[in-house]
Amino acid sequence: MLFNIFMLIAGLIALVWSADKFVYGAAAFARNLGLPPMLIGLTIVAMGSSAPEMFVAATASMEGMTDTAIGNVLGSNVANITLILGLTALLGAIAVSSQTLKREIPLMIIATAIAGYFLHDGMLTRIEGFMLLGLFFMLMGYFIWHAVTNKKQHVQDDEDDSEVPKGVPTSKAIMWLVVGIVLLPLSADWMVQGAVGIAKAYHLSDLVIGLTIIAIGTSLPELAACVAGVLKKEDDLAIGNIVGSNLFNILAVLAIPGIIAPGVVDAAASTRDFYMVLATSSALAVFILLSGRARSLKRWHGVVLLCTFIAYQLVLFQV
Questions:
Q1: Model confidence pLDDT, tens digit, residues 111-131
Q2: Distances from the Cα of 191 to the Cαs of 2, 59, 132, 186, 273, in angstroms?
Q3: Please, are residues 69 and 189 in contact by the beta-carbon 8 Å criterion?
Q4: Which of 86, 89, 158, 276 is the most exposed place for a label (fewest CB within 10 A)?
Q5: Measured between alpha carbons, how far is residue 309 from residues 76, 77, 136, 267 in Å?
Q6: Helix (H) or strand (E) holding 299
Q7: Contact 286, 63 (CB under 8 A)
Q8: pTM score, two decimals?
Q9: Using alpha carbons only, what angle is made at residue 255 by residues 254 and 261, rounded to the nearest 5 degrees?
Q10: Is 294 exposed, middle or buried (0-12, 13-18, 19+ CB in 10 A)?
Q11: Where would I find the Sodium/calcium exchanger membrane region domain in this sequence (predicted)?
């Protein structure tokens, strides 16, 4: 048991660290190639916080643990809204821009509904996996097109420019890129093996392993980004990070088990857990819409979200 705990903690630390270095190296290398900051910000940097989920999903799928991979996606999306935004809202009200409310949040809910439709028959096929991935690339294309044609493009460029590393030698960028590429799958494997060892000792299913231990662990980068955003008074960064991560998870990451290990899905994933993802995503929109002209998440919203997270975890561990 102690060895499994060590594997889990070591894997988690290495996973978060290597994901950060991978994004740093990739973004710096892309800048040195002459790619615009806007494009780098919308792709490499935006996907960075979901890199742990992606590599854990790939590792679990290749080891035949499809339910763990799917549980990681669903559990991470629930944790992002209930745990991460719940904790962040306790620091103070989080203002939400009209663009996030009118565009990103509805897209997140629609993407969740599409994924639920694919899962409702208890199967995730390879075709459905490719369809999710195709939708993800279409969405990324739309975001890039919208940013390019936006009249306030110069403002976006300034914001993205601050997120992309400057003055990094190409050799150093490549070094961190390689370090990330090597360590990400290794650390994901350590984390999965450690979590599985601990969970099996308590007779938990593969799905619950992904929904709880792994999901919470892979959501830590989002927590760090959200808290940093609120402390810097950049509320859009906090909400945008969560909505963007959930979109990436439900389209790109959920596609991975479908493509690598298609087949039967635990019935609870397509009912209980999917409905939880859909309900929490919808609740986020409702909270913001009912907050008045302020359009924000308030402290009491944070309390409700945290209580929801705790109740959901209690239900999972009683199964």
A1: 999 999 999 999 999 999 999
A2: 14, 10, 26, 9, 22
A3: no
A4: 158
A5: 11, 11, 27, 21
A6: helix 299-318
A7: no
A8: 0.84
A9: 100
A10: exposed
A11: 5-145, 173-317
Task: Say if residues 38 and 153 touch (Cβ distance below 8 Å).
Answer: yes
Residue 302 has pLDDT above 80, yes or no: yes
Q: Each residue of 126-165: pLDDT tens digit? A: 999 999 999 999 998 888 787 777 755 444 455 555 556 7
What is the CATH classification number for the domain harbouring 8? 1.20.1420.30
DSSP line for 29-51? HHHHTT--HHHHIIIIIHHHTTH
What is the mean predicted confidence (pLDDT) over 73-88?
93
Burial (Cβ within 10 Å: 0-12, 13-18, ≥19) of residue 69: buried
> Average pLDDT of the chain?
84
Nearest to 43 by CA among 29, 54, 27: 27
Instruction: Find the Cα–Cα–Cα–Cα dihedral 61, 51, 246, 240, rounded to 10°.
Output: 180
Can you list the positions of beta strands (E) in the chain? 94-95, 123-124, 263-264, 296-297
Q: How far apart are CA 310 and CA 319, in angstroms?
A: 15
Q: What is the DSSP letter of 261?
A: S
pLDDT value at 293 more than 90? no
The answer to whether 208 and 199 have CB atoms below 8 angstroms apart is: yes
Range of the domain at 12: 1-317
Specify whether the CB–CB gap between 206 and 65 falls below 8 A: yes
Sequence-distant (6+) residues with CB within 8 A of 132 are 114, 115, 118, 250, 251, 252, 254, 255, 258
* Dihedral angle, C-alpha 194, 25, 259, 241, nearest 10 °: 80
181 burial type by CB count under 10 A (0-12 exposed, 13-18 middle, 19+ buried): middle
On whether the CB atoms of residues 26 and 44 are closer than 8 A, the answer is yes
